[in-house]
Design brief:
Elements (H helix, E strand, L loop, with lengths): L1 E5 L8 E4 L9 E10 L1 H7 L13 E2 L3 E6 L11 E4 L2 E2 L4 H4 L12 E3 L3 E2 L6 E4 L4 E3 L11 H17 L10 E5 L3 H12 L3 E6 L4 H8 L4 E4 L5 H6 L6 E4 L4 H7 L8 E4 L13 H10 L3 E4 L5 H17 L8 E6 L15 E5 L3
Parallel strand pairs: 8-9, 12-13, 12-15, 13-14, 15-16, 16-17, 18-19
Antiparallel strand pairs: 1-2, 1-4, 3-5, 3-10, 3-19, 5-6, 6-11, 7-8
The structure holds beta-D-glucopyranose (BGC).
Length: 353
């Protein structure tokens, strides 16, 4: 079958190649409809991240899936629309409890990223419990579920951690980065009732208009420095970084006020260095009881909550989610779509639309 592949570690090696069909042995076989591309795929394509399965030179890319079950299996009916989760467990205590997103030993694998083929192929096979059926009403936008689950997990952990105090009612949030993860995080925070400002580097009027549709504010640091954006809000309770830049991630630690929290989502695979006002950052974190929380991948709870939130968002802001998919490419052209394009929001590979 045809699949979008790379040779991990070799920049520019992305190509559509023939790969063996997946072995369906006791697994559910899924016909892929579309796969989203993201910053992680671009990093892998630049040779900065990613690992092929043992014994394979290439890695099939794609971890933002949407497909339909090919034939009745594992309790799922043929045609059921599904999204697969990404991370696969090792034998650590958390993985054994289904929390491979909290793996302790580091022997986990991630489909399309680390040591196991991904979904950007004509078919894949997976264990039924790692497939999440989605309602038909959101099937067209279900490819956005996986990038949403990153913030779903961040929010779930944040709420759990903030039980460290008796009163916490977050009102203001700043999201840095107006790519898909940032916009979906803003959507989630709006659904939870927060006043949200999304900040990016260069002003894009279309993004401002888009975010206004869900009642989120927008600012660009080319016009207003990040610190001023925060200062204009009454105490910032939550900052979520989705820029892909470690420098900005550290800056966000200075934005939140008393008892606030910073959620970090950027997977930064390069080796950049920054100069940092470390005393000020540290002092702010200490004196404000600030919580800094990394969120990677997601578990079944986040996929289920994400499905509910996609449906809620579609009811409240019809058509908003679909407008995040700004570019569709056929599988044959997928390799050319791998490099990050700041003008696009979500690029998807239409494998079999
Ligand atoms: C994916 C996660 C994955 C992370 C680190 C992200 O792009 O969405 O599923 O855990 O990269 O590899």
């Amino acid at each position: 079958m045809r699949a979008l592949t790379v040779v991990p570690g070799r920049a520019g090696s992305g190509a559509v190649r023939d790969v063996p069909d997946p072995v369906a042995d006791g697994l559910v076989s899924v016909d892929v409809v579309r796969v989203g591309l993201c910053g992680t795929d671009a990093e892998i394509e630049r040779g900065e991240y990613g690992r092929a399965p043992e014994g394979s030179e290439v890695l099939v890319l794609g971890h933002e899936s949407f497909g339909r079950v090919s034939g009745d299996a594992g309790g799922l009916r043929k045609g059921t629309p599904v999204v697969a989760s990404v991370r696969r467990p090792d034998g650590c205590p958390n993985c054994r409890n289904g929390e491979q997103d909290m793996c302790l030993w580091g022997g986990f694998r991630e489909r399309g990223i680390n040591g196991i083929h991904g979904f950007c192929a004509e078919r894949f096979a997976e264990r039924a419990e790692l497939l999440f059926p989605v309602p038909e009403e959101i099937a067209d936008v279900a490819v956005l579920l996986e990038p949403l689950t990153i913030s779903e997990k961040g929010w779930r952990h944040l709420v759990a951690a903030q039980r460290r105090m008796t009163y916490w009612e977050p009102k203001q949030a700043i999201v840095t980065g107006a790519g898909p993860v940032g916009i979906l995080a803003a959507l989630l925070l709006r659904l939870r009732g927060l006043d949200v400002t999304v900040v990016e580097r260069t002003e894009k009027p279309a993004r401002r208009e888009l975010l206004a549709r869900i009642g989120a504010r927008y600012a660009a640091t080319s016009v207003t420095p990040l610190g001023d954006v925060a200062a204009a809000r009454e105490r910032v309770d939550v900052a979520l970084d989705a820029t892909g830049s470690a420098a900005v991630a550290f800056e966000t630690m200075r934005l939140v006020g008393a008892n606030g929290a910073v959620i970090l989502t950027s997977v930064t695979g390069a080796d950049r260095r920054v100069e940092l006002r470390a005393d000020a950052v540290n002092q702010g974190l200490v004196l404000n009881n600030v919580l800094v929380l990394g969120t990677v991948n997601a578990n079944a709870l986040d996929f289920r909550q994400g499905i509910a939130d996609l449906a809620a968002a579609e009811r409240r802001w019809p058509g908003f989610l679909a407008s995040l998919i700004t570019r569709r490419v056929p599988l044959a052209d997928a390799a050319r779509a791998l490099p990050h394009d700041p003008n696009e929001i979500k690029t998807v590979v239409e494998v079999a639309p």
